[in-house]
């Protein structure tokens, strides 16, 4: 820098040896041209005008037509059981079963049903109730046998009797034997076809290459006719269990969408004039979204596409609980946007209620004895009973008489009678007591999707820890009790990768990871048989039921409050600063090797060294900082040759544990999962905010008494844990709106808004950017 110029700036333009200078950008205010002064001068507007003129040249002349707003926008909601599709201007969507029957050239295997509910032993399947009538207290429950299934049902019955005792409702003690006697002796009534207004026109012969929706379910005998009946969507993802390849799943989804659009009178030549809004789960798979967008934009050929979450429903802040057929999604919505850390997915839904109802009815002698859940018409029988019988209101429990109809191909319609007691409320209670659900069997045979490598994928921002990127905070809160306590390891052992099983938590006293609430020193880690600590402060056993006895002590443990003597709880985290200071104060210092071996040591230094060695030998609790192992040479005490090296606490990353957090979190009861989702949103104020606005949608929300059942259970959890907690409120769906189509209507509202014009992704954008176009355009991802 030359002297005399104190504020001279260094030339970083690499043009210091030339007289050339970069001119400044012109000020548009002083320019006489209209370039870039209006929106019509932008590149987007020019491309739109060019496309409009091209369409005018093809049509010859413009024919202005008045259409309803949203008439050119198609909204698609793919569910596990039903597909809802329609224009954004429609009041209600078209709802059809999301199933397809394809003609096969080879032999078709018989249809099978994957059991997701526990089953009793063979000798106790029919006409053997799980509980017996007590002799004294009418609210007492006595297990009928040593069958594990009877023990699970008895535990749910205990919860029901406790609620009936609280509401002072009488119990019919011998109801099970009365119902069993009636059902075993009942003979069906034959109804002539002419007197059955709801008779089904079964398809006994067909040469069509495929059948979609209701037509696929009306096949008289699919196996003999050579049709394979499959459901391509399962639990918010592709059904990889029933398909040999992912390409077959995508092909079936495309066929179902095309046939559904025909029912809405949208022909293939009009696809290019329509935009599409796709409703995706809040906790989605990237490969699932990528494949569906490619089908809509490339294979089918819509003009542009957008993604939507659970939006609308008349409110902007709520804890949305979407209860579908296979899964239940929970997420807190703030100002119309989903809070990512509050997302949770429970692997249970309406199908589990249907299956559990059948198992319970079979225990009391269900009169229709040839029922098989693998057949569509038999499944519809139990679905109809679930819609008419099931309730969560304890006051509706009574020994009543019900009737139902069985319509089978090749048979006349049969009318049956049925008596049931508490089976109608025990079936939907499996959502709050998921001990009877077999989660491992439900996901058996499912494969992970393999995504093709994409050039644009490298540009996407990826978290450094894939483990934390995949799981939400609500899931981590729900499963923190599964992470075991790590015992210290010695220096002669290499730090192994700890992969403990979920069912075998460590029983060593000590400190745990930062994610795990820690018991006090001297208290053993609970075993799986004992109640393990959950995130909501309550106790949860392996089957998932909740006790609220130790809520106050749990809250103290989580907040690291002072105990009665004014001392800190000793269950701090391994990585905490307080724990390190305590170790430095209480443990002996690590002896370093002298700088020079030839340098003699003073007498005082030798005596001090002997004292240190004796102290370390007696205590044998020498702690070494792992971060300083490279800088220090560890010398064991000379008198402790027979003693093993001192233990070293090693911090193991979360990804080293062999625990599927999302799968383990999916086993939680519904009320506990909702509370954990609200807890992941923030502090006590956030919890109160979202628990006072819980919106329940989906098919299972139609169960009578669902709102009161959720309110009472959430109130029992939140009151001792959240200060100043007021009444929990379940918001009913808007008036005259089916809760099953509420997510679709929210997406339809989103598709008609002018403020979301920047969310549309065209085919050119998709071919150029791929998944990056969705990430840049859609603020939902």
UniProtKB/TrEMBL annotation:
Pfam families: Actin (PF00022)
Region of interest (Disordered), ranges: 107-137, 505-617
SMART domains, per the entry: ACTIN
Biased composition (Basic and acidic residues): 553-570, 577-614
The organism's place on the tree of life at top rank: Eukaryota
Residue ranges, compositional bias (Polar residues): 505-515
Composition skew (Acidic residues), residue ranges: 543-552
Biased composition (Low complexity): 516-527
Alphabetized InterPro entries for the sequence: Actin (IPR004000), ATPase_NBD (IPR043129)
Matching PANTHER family: ACTIN
Record family assignment: Belongs to the actin family.
Protein name: Uncharacterized protein
């Amino acid at each position: 820098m030359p002297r005399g110029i104190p504020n001279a700036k260094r030339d970083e333009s690499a043009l210091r040896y030339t007289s050339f200078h970069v001119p400044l950008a012109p000020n548009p205010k002083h320019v006489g041209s209209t370039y870039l002064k209006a929106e019509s001068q932008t590149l987007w507007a020019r491309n739109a005008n060019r496309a409009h003129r091209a369409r005018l040249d093809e049509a010859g002349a413009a024919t202005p037509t008045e259409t309803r707003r949203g008439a050119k926008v198609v909204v698609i909601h793919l569910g596990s059981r039903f597909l809802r599709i329609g224009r954004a201007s429609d009041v209600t969507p078209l709802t059809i079963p999301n199933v397809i029957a394809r003609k096969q050239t080879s032999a078709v295997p018989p249809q099978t049903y994957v059991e997701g509910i526990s089953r009793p032993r063979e000798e106790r399947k029919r006409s053997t109730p799980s509980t017996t009538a007590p002799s004294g207290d009418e609210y007492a429950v006595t297990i009928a046998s040593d069958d594990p299934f009877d023990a699970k049902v008895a535990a749910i019955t205990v919860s029901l009797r406790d609620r009936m005792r609280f509401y002072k409702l009488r119990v019919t003690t011998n109801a099970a034997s009365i119902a069993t006697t009636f059902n075993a002796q009942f003979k069906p009534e034959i109804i002539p076809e002419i007197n059955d207004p709801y008779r089904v026109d079964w398809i006994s012969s067909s040469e069509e290459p495929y059948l979609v929706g209701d037509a696929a379910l009306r096949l008289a005998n699919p196996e003999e006719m050579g049709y394979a009946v499959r459901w391509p969507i399962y639990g918010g993802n592709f059904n990889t269990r029933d398909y040999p390849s992912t390409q077959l799943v995508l092909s079936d989804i495309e066929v179902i969408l095309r046939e559904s659009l025909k029912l809405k009178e949208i022909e293939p030549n009009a696809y290019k004039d329509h935009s599409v809004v796709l409703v995706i789960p809040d906790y989605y798979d990237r490969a699932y979204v990528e494949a569906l967008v490619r089908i809509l934009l490339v294979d089918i050929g819509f003009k542009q596409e957008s993604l939507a979450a659970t939006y609308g429903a008349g409110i902007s802040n709520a804890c949305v609980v979407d209860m579908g057929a296979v899964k239940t999604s929970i997420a807190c919505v703030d100002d119309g946007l989903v809070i990512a850390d509050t997302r949770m997915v429970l692997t249970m839904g309406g199908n589990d209620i249907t299956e559990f109802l059948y198992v319970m009815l079979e225990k009391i002698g269900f009169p229709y004895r040839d029922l098989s859940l693998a057949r569509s018409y038999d499944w519809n029988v139990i679905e109809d009973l679930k819609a008419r019988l099931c309730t969560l209101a304890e006051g509706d429990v009574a020994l009543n008489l019900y009737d139902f109809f069985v319509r089978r191909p090749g048979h006349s319609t049969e009318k049956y009678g049925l008596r049931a007691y508490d089976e109608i409320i025990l079936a939907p209670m499996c959502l709050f007591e998921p001990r009877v659900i077999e989660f491992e069997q439900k996901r058996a045979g499912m494969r992970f999707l393999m995504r093709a490598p994409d050039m644009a994928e490298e540009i996407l921002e990826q978290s450094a820890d894939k483990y934390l990127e995949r799981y939400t905070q609500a899931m981590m809160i729900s499963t923190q009790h599964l992470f075991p306590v790590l015992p210290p390891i010695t220096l002669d052992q290499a730090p192994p990768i700890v992969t403990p099983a979920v069912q075998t938590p460590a029983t060593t006293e000590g400190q745990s990871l930062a994610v795990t609430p820690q018991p006090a020193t001297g208290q053993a880690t609970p075993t799986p048989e004992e109640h393990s600590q959950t995130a909501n402060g309550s106790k949860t056993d392996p089957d998932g039921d909740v006790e609220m006895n130790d809520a106050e002590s749990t809250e103290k443990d989580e907040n690291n409050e002072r105990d009665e003597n004014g001392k800190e709880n000793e269950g701090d985290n391994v990585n905490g600063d307080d724990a390190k200071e305590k170790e430095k104060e209480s443990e002996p210092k690590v002896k370093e090797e002298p700088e020079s071996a030839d340098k003699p040591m003073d007498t005082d230094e030798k005596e001090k060294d002997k004292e240190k060695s004796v102290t370390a030998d007696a205590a044998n609790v020498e702690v070494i900082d792992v971060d300083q192992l490279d800088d220090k040479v560890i010398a064991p005490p000379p008198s402790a040759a027979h003693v093993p090296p001192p233990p070293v606490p090693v911090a193991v990353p979360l990804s080293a544990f062999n625990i599927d957090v999302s799968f383990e979190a999916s086993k939680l009861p519904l009320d506990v999962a909702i509370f954990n989702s609200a807890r992941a949103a923030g502090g006590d104020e956030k919890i109160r905010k979202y628990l006072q606005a819980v919106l329940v949608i989906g098919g299972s929300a139609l169960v009578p008494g669902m709102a009161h059942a959720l309110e009472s259970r959430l109130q029992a959890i939140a009151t001792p844990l959240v200060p100043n907690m007021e009444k929990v409120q379940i918001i009913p769906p808007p008036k005259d709106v089916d809760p099953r189509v509420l997510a679709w209507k929210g997406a339809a509202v989103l598709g008609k808004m002018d403020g979301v014009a920047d969310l549309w992704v065209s085919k050119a954008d998709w071919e150029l950017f791929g998944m990056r176009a969705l990430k840049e355009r859609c603020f939902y991802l």
